[in-house]
Amino acid sequence: MSVSANDTTAKVSLRGFLAKYSVLIAFAAIVIFFSVASPTFLTPANLFNVLVNNVVMLAIVALGLTIVISSGGIDLSVGVSVDMASMIFVMLLAAGYSGIVGVAGGLGAALIVGILNAILITRLNISPFLATLGVLFIGQSTQQLATSGGQPIYLTSGYAADQFNAVARTALFGVPTPVIVLIVLVVAVHVLLHRSVFGRYVQAMGAQPGVAWYSGIRVPRELSTVHVLCALLAGVTGILLSATVKSYVPLSGNAFLLDAIGATFIGTTLSRERKPSVIGTLLGVLLLAIVKNGLLLVGWNFYWQQVGIGVLVFLVLAASFGLRRAAH
Amino acid sequence: MSASVLHSEVAVSDEKQAAAKSAGRRFGALVVRLGAIAAFAAIMAYFVVFAPGFTSTFNLINVVEQSAILGVLAYGMTSVIIGGGSDVTEGGIDLSIAANMGLCAAVYATLLSMGYGDFLSVLAAIAVGMAVGALNALAVVGLGILPLLATLAVLNVAAGMELTLTQNTVVGASSPLLGVLVSGSFLGISALAWALIVFSAIMIVVVHGTSFGLRLYSVGGHPESARAAGISVPFYVSFTYVLSGFCAAVASILTVSRLSASTPGSGELLLSVLAAALLGTVFSRRFVPTMGGTLLSVLFIGLLANGFQLLNVSSYWVNGVQGALILLVVAITSFARGSEGSR
Lengths: 328, 343
Hints:
Structural class of chain A: mainly alpha
Distance between the termini of chain A: 9 Å
Largest sheet of chain A: 2 strands, antiparallel
Helix content of chain A: over 70%
Strand content of chain A: under 5%
Strand content of chain B: under 5%
CATH architecture of chain A: Orthogonal Bundle
CATH architecture of chain B: Orthogonal Bundle
Helix content of chain B: over 70%
Oligomer: heterodimer
Strand order of the largest sheet of chain B: 1-4
């Protein structure tokens, strides 16, 4: 779909307006609906619960995917990065190491996944989809082999539990650490992607890979950074996840993959060129989290929630894509 | 792109000698393709020699049976990739296919357990599968939503509906048709194996032996040219999604027969289906998805799991080896394809 850049003659079309802001409109409508339907929805306690339990971890994974998708690629192995960070973090704590060592080890594990992806994509020239799919399979095997088939590791008491609490349960000025981590990462990724030279390179690679190459952008190097960053962000989620639930459950990271892809692409409907953005991604994550929470509060069971989320995402996408198509 | 770096290493011949270079590249591609197939052959040879009972007729038929479900699903995925183009983020993909199979299986088993006959239950399962496919088609073709996104939303709907229908439990099922599928055999080959053989034959003939299939490739390869040639692109793309839904329904009946029940968790098959459809490209001369290639990769994945089982290797290795093989094959392929390789 080609987009006319001629703004001077462009009339303010209602359809175009609706298409551009369909996600925001849907978001507002959903918030209003649940506020009316459930007395507990708009309470600070509930919104806080949504933020800490539903938003933070998904949002950090989605930030990583936003960078990768901006570069024109995809990372199907974010779940592996989440899991590997979680696994090494928990195993180190189980072995008696301190929280700092555990966090460093976990991030190191995610870093290895990212570097592996980067090598496969930039050195061996495998498409991001297939490279990360292969890494996903290998990561699943690795976890099964390391945990004799997927035995979870629980560390609910003792020294390790204290270390977990130090990561997940502390607060700064009344704001829980995970939320602070999220805020810092959102600002950092926003600046990186939308206000830095690196971000411009990434956007250029996503828009026109060939042109980016001929413009002298060192595509392999930038692309490697993109995939390493994505894996590291997923690793942060893995550490926060295990610290929150005080355990490592093998193969649990994959649950983030589809939601994070969905959130990122919902976010792309904000821009005319369908470019991913940090703000858009956050909006997508909030939309998914609020719908999940709201449906739970109005009494839908887990199974119907999934149908509800699917239908809702479908409708939002249909409105955005369909109206935009009609507007041109 | 990074491809160019590799490319310049591949094409060692003088740049002026374009003809020689392209011949050299063709030769290189041939060597690589044969190399990939030789790697498959080597693994198979290892199993033949070291895995007890690997080559017995019983075992081979067993592998074909086990591959039937994955195979039928992979055909659906392959048709969508052929018709939608193989671009990763914009091209054709059906993420909902495995969840759709789960939903169809739940519908089929539930109707059977409620006392409806085979005819009605099968019809309902196929109707549901094709309806989900039609929903994908509506979203992708009618509304212009990216296939990756549209089928992701539909995945959630289908998986959620399966859960609401079965309450996340196993729904047992038995019927005359299932009886035939489980224990029936013809010419010494079991019904499930026949299902894969017949389905494969139909798909290969339709996609590779008819003008319909040729038009399907043109739609996926270059939509503008296809349109200019008077081919209705929307029809062909829609068709692939509905076909994919149909494949999901057929696979659902096979899976219910294999397990004598509809069980939760069918969504886990998605990655294997994707792997099979994408791995299959290495068997084609131009590295495009083909039905024959998909069949070979499905059988290969089945034989791999089976050989490991016979060698008493932990099944935890299977995923990893499968992943490593995908990477190996695709790395070699993109190396051979040169600069047009990735993306």
